[in-house]
Amino acid sequence: MSHSNHLAAPGTPGGPVTPEDLIDLDALGSAYVDDRPDASLPEQRVAFGTSGHRGSSLDRTFNEAHILAITQAIVEHRIAHGIGGPVLVGKDTHALSTVAERTAIEVLSANGVPVHIQGTHGITATPVISRAILAYNQGRSSSDPGRADGIIITPSHNPPRDGGFKYNPPDGGPAGGDITGGIERRANEILAGDSSAVRRTSSPGDASTLPGVEVVDFIRPYVEALSSVIDLDSIRSAGLRLAAHPLGGASLPIWPVLAEVHGIEVAVTDDTLDPRFGFMTLDADGLVRMDCSSPFAMAPLVAQMAGGEYDLAFGNDPDSDRHGIVCRNSGLMNPNRFLAVAIEHLLATRCDWSEQSRIGKTLVSSILIDRVVAAANRSLCEVPVGFKWFAPGLFDGSICFGGEESAGASFLTFDGNPWTTDKDGIVMDLLAAEILAKSGRDPGEHEASMIERFGDPVYRRISAPADARTRTALKNLDASAVTATELAGDPITATLTEAPGNGAPIGGLKVCTAQGWFAARPSGTEPIYKIYAESLRDETHLKGILEEAQSMINAVI
């Protein structure tokens, strides 16, 4: 790293990785094939969280048997719902993504399902697949048997040892619980039956040689269409000096195509593709994690921006559905703050959006968003955690922007049509550039102005250990179980177990006062629960909210 002198010491948060931090790729690959999960153990079964099934072959939670079972279950789901078009398959740069892609294609091919995969590089950003599904299905009715859907193989920003597997139905977004529940149940039946229900073919050559597989270019059509959602003319005219760090992920092949098609140059600060992600700096907990919203993982780009070489920079996680915005003077933006800035800009500039379309936020996102939306006289739609809750609204236009606290968002095209129904880190990067180009101020400067008008809330997310019983109890909590009337000295104004925007179960609890709130929900994939909290006062008040939140949760579960 050219700026390593500005980084923390090797092996510490924000510092370069050491050889001891790197995964053994051979062991990971061997475990994927050789280690079979025990279907009688809950932790080794297929489990769809907010973003598909995730795990590691080293823990027997992401092995060949899982991918065989999930893919066969998807095939059966497609048959049951009359989906006969191609499956658009994308993958990121995690080591397990490559082997899982091959497994999935072998099952799809054996079942006579047409498959489209990316040609050059073979890696495909999540939003590129979402966009491709929507484009393929444009003009087709909801009952058209020729509709396409997708499989995206990624554990997002998770460590290099992990794998992930998502299904996106014909609306292009992450599948909802009604779909993933059925796929999960059937996959576990197949797993328990020793995979005898799986149809699979193989070939000694590349996966592209299997019957029914077509190699296409998903990336160029995506890039060509970007002018329908971002004011690229203003960015090009402003002559901005832009930089991107792909964090070793699937955004890497997008930037040269953007330059070729639209004449917008984005300097790639590190073009390394390494499934061990050995070029990364360590995250807060000392793990290698490609989290573009973490100041530790983004330390090299933040250090580079401090040199003044660029006007604006951004990073993306390995599947590029998340964004990290780095400003020259203020550094890496808090993702909640950038969402608020983005919403304010979009509501002021997207004049053809319907005034009835709502702004979507997850119920653990900042109250700053509420204030920005209210000031613009627009309506808010507050949903549970998970981008899948925004997909239907983005698809039909009833939601014009959907954003979640973990740096994931997407929004409609200029004329109010769906762009992607999954998170899109690329358009959020380019939106930051549009904001700078059109206003002359970068998003960090807009944040400072926004705080002057709406206040400066303090936000934090923490995790606490939780066994399976505790997580289940929290997920199924009834609001009446909370008997407290105050939180950190303020009267409780709402106790929620359902999201106000759509009435869907939170899978946890949110408690609000006039001066702050907390929400608690169990992880779908880890033995922890998460507490999110925000104070409109200060750090001391936030600390009180967090302490009382943990006591309140312990009391009710």
Model description:
With 557 residues, the chain is of the alpha/beta class. The protein folds into 3 domains: 24-217, Alpha-D-Glucose-1,6-Bisphosphate, Chain A, domain 3 (3-Layer(aba) Sandwich); 221-454, Alpha-D-Glucose-1,6-Bisphosphate, subunit A, domain 3 (Alpha-D-Glucose-1,6-Bisphosphate, Chain A, domain 3); 458-556, TATA-Binding Protein. It is built from 16 helices and 23 strands. Strands 1-2-6-5-3-4-7 form a 7-stranded mixed sheet, sandwiched between helices. Strands 9-8-10-11-12 form a 5-stranded mixed sheet, sandwiched between helices. The model is unreliable at 1-5 (pLDDT under 50).
Outline:
With 557 residues, this protein is an alpha/beta fold. It has 16 helices and 23 strands. The N and C termini lie far apart (48 Å).
